[in-house]
Amino acid sequence: MKNYKLLLGSAFLSGMLLFSASMYLKNNIQNNFRTNNETKDIEKEKSAVGAARWLFNIKKNQLTGKIDDFDVLKAREEIAQMRQNKSVTAALGLEWNELGPDNVGGRTRAILIDKYNSNKIFAGSVSGGLWVSTDAGASWANVNGFDQQPILSVTCITQAANGDIYVGT
Known about the structure:
Radius of gyration: 26 Å
Number of domains: 3
Largest sheet: 4 strands, antiparallel
Mean pLDDT: 75
Distance between the termini: 56 Å
Low-confidence stretches: none
Shape: extended
Number of helices: 5
Helix content: 40-55%
């Protein structure tokens, strides 16, 4: 038992030593190839300006370095052609339809399937209010009362034992 603990301890120590050495070498190699300006650029990338620069770099034409309206139009046309060519999704047995909402955005923060009616689903959006589906998600509608406040952020949805639905905002 004593030998087992010693063996386990030495294996752990060896692993930690190897990991530390590899991280040290990685950082030294990266720092040797960075200039002072590059180091400052890395710090800028952590700001809103850096985020905007990253987004621009993702969208720009790789040859010209600019975002051209013609390129955007061309990309949209290619997407439309891909949607018409359904052979790829048909081969997988998939049929995708955009159901919206297309006038409000945001991530789905909370979802609840009614425990008394599995076809009834509620979805709460970070910036789009509360949505309900009565056909197991095939179509969605804004819940009455929440449609007057479309920016209402829903953070959680729960159902009481008696079936009442509670929404946290």
